[in-house]
Amino acid sequence: MTSPPPILDSFVERLTVRDFERLAACLDPDVRLRAIIPPGPEEHHGRAAAADRFGDWFADAVSFELVEHRIEPFVDRWLVTYRIALDEGHGARRVEQHLFCDLGAELIERIDLLCSGFRPVGLQGPQPGSRTRSGRGPLRGLPVVYTAASRG
Question: What is the value of pTM for the model shown?
Answer without folding.
Answer: 0.80
